């Protein structure tokens, strides 16, 4: 049975995924928002779909069931399994630690003196520390886990991403075994406890995959957001002292989340697979088709946002879709905001004359990871 919904001014076009397979690309705000809540599309292909289109060539981003003969557990159940680990209580408890590690990293940059790289000296160690701490990864293992995590989503070399994905999941399996014997106050232990209560989530592979996915998503996406925000703040006029005001900081962070990276946008949006025939305006999406929701384009929709293509730190109405919408809203959104506020609320107090080191034209785009951004963001400042 074919189902449809009316959409005004939709931008739905045929295109290709980062893997080169056919896909529908949806880029207008209203249709993206609608499809984010549509039960007829799913993160996994329908079990009846033979040889579904690939989203990317990176092994960890292959959206398929490990056991094709077993129906996937309900999305809402998987979401509840993860959401318990990102509760408001846990995020509040984490705030002092995030603030402290941010201050330490900025202090180390300042002591070492310029120049520095925002990604390697601040964004990467901060996000790696926080997500590793949440997952319960021992300190001595975090560097190798970070390297596997980064390599597992490399779009340039499937062999590299495949080896890293295998190493990361083998490590997570060993860590899960340890958590079964020595439970702790961390996400892995949360997942295992939740699993005991839900027979549909009994698969060890499911927990391994979720742990690996949380590890790379919790680092790579946040690093790129810090990279993006720093670039935007250093290339646009803004009252840096005002960022000490939490209300001002809130608006700035939301605009950083909305505005695509000026140097390298996301390589692609959010992948979904149609589980029924769907008519969207003049487009006919067939059951089994890959649908990519372009969040960057949606966040620049001129029908929704005034002066949509400009970075406006004082923007008040900002219903961006960077963390999704509705029942599939990103469970890690509060954590990402926590880290962004810690960085942008602190760094200009310590380094008020912070600036990009070199010509903007020399900055290299990061094109081998879906999140985009820069290969590095060199900065400098005057010594005190």
From TrEMBL:
InterPro entries: Cyt_P450, Cyt_P450_B, Cyt_P450_CS, Cyt_P450_sf. Its cofactor is heme. Keywords: Heme, Iron, Metal-binding, Monooxygenase, Oxidoreductase. It comes from the Bacteria. Pfam families: p450 (PF00067). SUPFAM superfamilies: Cytochrome P450. PANTHER family: CYTOCHROME P450 BJ-1, P450, PUTATIVE (EUROFUNG)-RELATED. Belongs to the cytochrome P450 family. This is Cytochrome P450. It comes from Nocardia rhizosphaerihabitans.
């Amino acid at each position: 049975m074919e189902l449809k919904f009316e959409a005004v001014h939709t931008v739905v076009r045929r295109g290709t995924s980062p893997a080169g397979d056919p896909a529908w690309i949806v880029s207008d705000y209203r249709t993206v928002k609608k499809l984010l809540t549509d039960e007829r599309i799913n993160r996994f292909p329908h079990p009846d779909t033979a040889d579904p289109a690939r989203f990317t060539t990176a092994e960890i981003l292959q959206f398929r069931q490990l056991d094709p003969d077993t129906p996937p557990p309900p999305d809402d159940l998987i979401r509840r399994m993860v959401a318990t680990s990102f509760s408001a209580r846990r995020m509040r408890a984490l705030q002092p630690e995030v603030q402290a590690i941010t201050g330490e990293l900025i202090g180390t940059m300042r002591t070492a003196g310029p120049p520095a790289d925002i990604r390697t000296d601040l964004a990467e160690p901060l996000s790696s520390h926080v997500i590793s701490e949440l997952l319960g990864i021992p300190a001595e293992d975090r560097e190798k886990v970070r390297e596997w995590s980064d390599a597992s989503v490399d779009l340039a070399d499937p062999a590299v991403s495949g080896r890293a994905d295998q190493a990361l999941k083998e490590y997570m399996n060993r860590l899960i075994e340890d958590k079964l014997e020595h439970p702790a106050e961390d996400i892995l232990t949360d997942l295992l406890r939740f699993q005991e209560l839900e027979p549909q989530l009994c698969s060890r592979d499911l927990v391994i995959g979720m742990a690996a996915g949380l590890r790379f998503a919790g680092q790579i996406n946040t690093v790129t957001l810090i990279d993006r925000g720093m670039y935007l703040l250093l290339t646009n006029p803004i009252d840096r002292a005002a960022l000490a005001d939490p209300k001002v900081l809130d608006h700035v962070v939301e605009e950083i989340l909305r505005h695509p990276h000026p140097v390298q946008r996301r390589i692609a949006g959010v992948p979904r697979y149609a589980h029924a025939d769907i008519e969207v305006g003049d487009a006919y999406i067939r059951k089994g088709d890959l649908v990519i929701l372009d969040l960057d384009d949606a966040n620049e929709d001129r029908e929704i946002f005034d002066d949509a293509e400009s970075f406006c730190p004082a923007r008040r109405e900002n219903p961006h879709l960077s963390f999704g919408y509705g029942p599939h809203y990103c469970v890690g959104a509060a954590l990402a905001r926590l880290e962004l506020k810690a960085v942008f609320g602190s760094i200009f107090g310590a380094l008020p004359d912070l600036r990009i080191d070199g010509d903007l034209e020399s900055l290299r785009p990061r094109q081998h990871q879906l999140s985009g951004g820069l290969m590095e963001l060199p900065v400098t400042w005057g010594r005190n």
